[in-house]
Design goal:
The chain has one domain. Helix content is 76%, strand content 0%. It is globular and about 55 Å long. The two termini are 31 Å apart.
Length: 222
């Protein structure tokens, strides 16, 4: 199961970065962060936990937000393709997190992360034969930061959080990241989100906030 999760994680990565390549940081990250709501739907199905009817309303809210992210429903539009690819990435990420939830209770998060990264290395290694490393040489420091801090440390901590929270709750709690990402995109890349992107993002993050508040309230009362 850990090996399968590694494959899903690898697909998530590839589609995530492809979505970012096609569009802005704001659209790329916001489309990815539909995954908490996707998780809330899939977790009851995969792990046989109770389904919450309120998730239907949240799904409508998220879909409305995604609608605002898409300026034109056409595969000739890079932003539309980015949103579609981003949601595909979110789907694989959600499934991977749900499948990892039972494993975290038995194994250390860093060990699970190591094996998944090993699978990804094997899976993506053939691409080295077709890659151009001229630009990579100038980006070694950012790539190292991405690999060591945001990937190794960040995802290991997320896995460890599964010991204390459901996959849905942990996913929701991590959804503050698009805000950081958009702000950093504005600061370093001068990417100012358009009005429709802001509206879509607010709708998606509102759904996440509502579910987060509801989950925390339920946890306190239980």
């Amino acid at each position: 199961m850990v090996l399968i999760c590694g494959v899903f994680f690898g697909i998530h990565w590839v589609t995530y970065f492809y979505a970012l390549k096609l569009s802005t940081v704001a659209i790329g990250m916001l489309s990815i962060y539909t995954y908490p709501v996707i998780t809330s739907f899939l977790e009851p199905v995969i792990l046989k936990t109770g389904f919450q009817k309120s998730h239907l309303g949240l799904a409508v809210l998220v879909l409305t937000g995604v609608y605002f992210l898409v300026p034109e429903v056409s595969f000739k539009n890079d932003h539309f393709i980015a949103v579609v690819v981003g949601i595909i990435s979110a789907l694989f990420y959600a499934i991977r997190n749900i499948l990892m939830k039972p494993k975290v209770a038995r194994y250390d998060g860093s060990v699970l992360m190591f094996y998944q990264l090993l699978v990804i290395v094997v899976m993506l290694s053939p691409l080295l034969l077709f890659s151009d490393f001229l630009q990579v040489k100038t980006q070694l420091l950012p790539i190292a930061f991405l690999a060591l801090i945001t990937t190794t440390v960040g995802h290991t901590l997320l896995l460890m959080s599964f010991k204390h929270f459901s996959a849905t709750t942990a996913s929701i709690m991590s959804s503050v990241q698009p805000i950081y990402g958009i702000l950093l995109g504005m600061l370093f890349l001068n990417e100012i989100p358009e009005l429709h992107t802001i509206i879509g993002g607010l709708l998606i993050l509102s759904a996440v906030f509502i579910e987060s508040t509801r989950t925390m309230r339920t946890a306190k009362n239980s």
